[in-house]
Amino acid sequence: MVGPTATLTPLARADGSASYQCPSTGSNILGSVNAPVELPGRRDALKPEDATVEVFVKPGTAPAGVSERYVEGIIKGVLGRLILGRERGYPRRGVVVTLATVGGESVGRGDSYLTLLPALLHTALLALLSASVPLSMTFSATVLAVCDSGDIIREPSTEQAAAAKSLHVLAFSSKGHLLLNESQGAFDFEAWEKVHQRALAICHGTSAIGSDGDIAMVEDVDGQPLEGTMRETIEDQVHRDYAWKIDAV
Amino acid sequence: MASAAPSVPPSLTLPPSQFARLQPHAYLLAHLSPPASSNQPSIRANGRAPSQFRVTSANTGSLTHTNGSAVVRVGDTTAVCGVRAEILPTDDIASWSVSHSSSSTNKRRKLTNPAQKPTQDDNEEEDPEDETHIQQLNLLVPNLSLSTGCAPGFIPGAPPSALAQSLSHQILNLLHTTRLVRAEDLRIWYQPPSLGSEDLERHNGSEQMDVDTERGEEVGKDKEIKAFWVLYIDIMIISLAGNPFDAAWAAVLAALRDTKLPRAWWDVDNEMVVCSDAVSESRKLSLRGLPVASSFCVFEADAAAGWRAVIIPDAEEEREIEESARKGIQRRWILADPDGYEEGLTQERVSIVVDKEQGGKGKTVIVKMEKNGGWAVDGKELKALVDISAQRWEEVKHILEQC
After folding, report:
1. Spatial distance between the Cα atoms of B105 and B97, rounded to a whole number of angstroms
2. What does the alpha-carbon distance between residue B131 and residue B133 come to, in Å, rounded to a whole number?
3. Closest residue in chain A to residue B363, using alpha carbons only
4. Which residues contact residue B288 at a Cβ distance below 8 angstroms, ignoring those fewer than 6 apart?
5. Which of A181, B100, B105, B199 has a CB 3.0–4.6 Å from the CB of B194, allowing a cystine?
6. Ordered domains of chain A (ranges, CATH)
7. Is residue A162 within 8 angstroms of chain B, CB to CB?
C-alpha cells in the first residue's frame, strides 16, 4: 500500500504550513497555521486564560457550506484539546488553521466528510508542528470502510466509501488514546471493535509500547505505521533545516 | 457615624445559586464527589444520576399548515419540527431526461401497493440504486434554526451560527445514512392508459383505470415517474438548555412519523400533478426503523490542568487504573444528556444513534457513533454507552408511540 506523502512549510508567508497527499483516497490538502495572532472578534469574557482555535476548511471547487462548518467543528474539537493554549504568548490570542482541498474529489451536499477527514487532520497537525505551536501530544488518524461482506478496506476511495456498509474515522494520540471516533452506517459493537483494532495497527503498528516506554514501530501488512510516517516527515524536515549545523559538527 | 453599631464581619457563606455562577466547575465537582463523611450519593447538580436522561415529552400534529409536525421537549430544551411537502415535477429536473428516462421505464421495478404498506420491521432490501434518488435530487431538506432567542448566547435574527449549520448537516447526513425515508414514498407515478386492442375489453370492465389503484405487474410496464415529493424539514429550537441534537433528531423523527402525504397523480389533460384533498386518501410515510440519538459528555475533575505542565499518562497505563481507584484530579464522570450548565464545563462529547431490529426485538444496531474532544472515552466506555443508548431507545420508542 502506498503511504501518504507530506511536505512541510511549502508556504513562505504563513507561520507554518504543510501539504499532504494521500494516494489511496486521492486527496491533496494544503494547510496553513498562523499562531499566535490577535483575533478581532474575540471576546475576553470567553476563557481569558486560553487560546482560541479557529479552523477553516475550503473545499476544492465550491464555496464553503454547511458540511464544512461541521467538519471544522470536528477538527477544532481534536486540536483544541491538544494545543497548549495556556503557554506563554498564547492566552487571549488565536491559532488559525486554514485547510484547503487542492485536489481529489469534492464532497457533495449532505455527504460525509469522513473520507477526507484523516487527510485534513494530518495536514493540520503537520502545519501546527511547522508553526511550532506547543502541543501536548501528536496523533494519527485513518478512515476504514466495512463492506457488506464484512471486509475492512483501509482508506477507501469515494466509490468504495459510497458502497460501504459503514464508514469509520479513528484518531489515536501518540500515547495510544482514542482521540476521535466518527462512525456512520449500520454496524454493531463487535464490528466496531474489529475496526478499532485494525485502525490501531495502521496508526501505531502491531506492538504498541515497548518495555522502555518507547513506541515500537513495527511494519506489517499495512506497511509503515502512520505515526512513524508523520514522525519521519518531521525528522526529515528538521534534518534539512539544520543541515548547516549538523554538517559543521 | 461613630455612633453606628459595631460593624458585623460580612458573612462568607454564599447561597448555592451564587456559588454555581462564581465557581461552576467546583460546584459540579462538589456534587459529584461529596465528602465520604457526608454519606451523600454522587449526584449531578441538576439532581440526576450520571446516566439519567431528562424527562422527555413529545407532541405531534400541532402545526396545522404542515404535513407533519412535532414538538419534543427534553428537559428545558424544546425543538419544534414541521415537515412541508412540495412537488418537484421531473420536467424541472435538468438532468432527468438524460439520466433517468431509461430507468424510469424499468420493468423490474418493484411496485409497492399503498394498501399493503410494508411494515416497519420487515427488512426487505430495495434496489440500492433506487434509493439514491433521495440523495441525488435532494428530496430531504432539513434546516435547523437557533436564532430564536433560545439561549442568551444566540441573538434572534442573527445569521445561522456554526452550531446551527453543523446540526443541520448532521441531521441531513443521518437522514441519508439511516435511509429513514423510503424513496418509493416520495415518488408520484403515472400509468399511461394502454390503448392496445387486447386491452380494450378489459378497459370496459375496470372503468377506474387509476394510476394509484390499479398496479398489476403487467400494466406496470410503462409506468413513469412524473414528480417527486420534496420534504422540507424545518426545526426550530425554541429553548436551548444543552443537548440540541437529541431533541432536534427526536423532533424530526416524531414529525416524519406524523407526516401524511396527500394522494397525488398526474393529470394528462392539464399536464400537471394534482392532489386529492380528501384526508382519507392521504397516506403516511413508512419509515425504516427508529434511530434514537443519545448524547453524553465527560466531566473531568482536573480543572486546573491547563496551568500546570501537562503530563498525560499513556493509554496503556491509564487502562490499568480502575475507575474506583481513580482519585483526586484523575476522576471523571460520563454524564448522559448534559444540560447547558454541564455542557459549558465539559469538552469531550459522545453522541450515539442506535436502532433495534424488528421493532425492538432484534439486536441493537449502531447507526452513528461520534466521540470527540478528549481521551477519557475508549472502547470499554463506548461499549457501556451503547448499552445505555439501547435502554434510552426503549424509552424514546415508548414516548414516540404514545404521542
Report:
1. 12
2. 5
3. A188
4. B120, B178, B179, B180, B181, B182
5. B199
6. 5-247 (3.30.230.70)
7. no
The reply to whether residue B316 touches residue A50, judged by beta carbons under 8 angstroms, is no
pLDDT above 90 for B314: no
Angstrom distance (rounded) from CA A28 to CA A214: 31
Q: For residue A27, give Cα distances in angstroms to A59, A105, A156, A167, B192.
A: 11, 7, 11, 17, 48
Which residue of B lies nearest to A174 if distances are taken between CA atoms? Answer: B314
How distant is the Cα of A12 from the closest Cα of chain B, in angstroms? 30
Q: What is the pLDDT of residue B1?
A: 45
Cα distance between residue A148 and residue A159, in whole Å: 14
Contact A51, A85 (CB under 8 A): yes
Q: Which pTM value belongs to this model?
A: 0.86
pLDDT digits (tens, 9 = 90+) for A115-166: 899 999 999 999 999 999 999 889 999 999 999 998 999 888 888 888 899 9
Cβ–Cβ below 8 Å for A184 and B138 = no
Q: Which residues 165-204 of B are in CB contact (within 8 Å) with A? A: 165-166, 168-170, 172-178
Q: How far is A207 from chain B (nearest CA, A)?
A: 12
Q: Nearest chain B Cα to A138, which residue?
A: B312
Domain ranges in chain B are 32-92+129-191+223-402
Percent of chain B with pLDDT over 70: 76
CATH number of B32-92+129-191+223-402: 3.30.230.70
The rounded distance, in Å, linking the Cα atoms of A52 and B122 is 49
- Which chain A residue is nearest to residue B170, measuring alpha carbons? A70
Can you say how many angstroms the Cα of residue A143 is from the centroid of all Cα atoms in its chain?
11
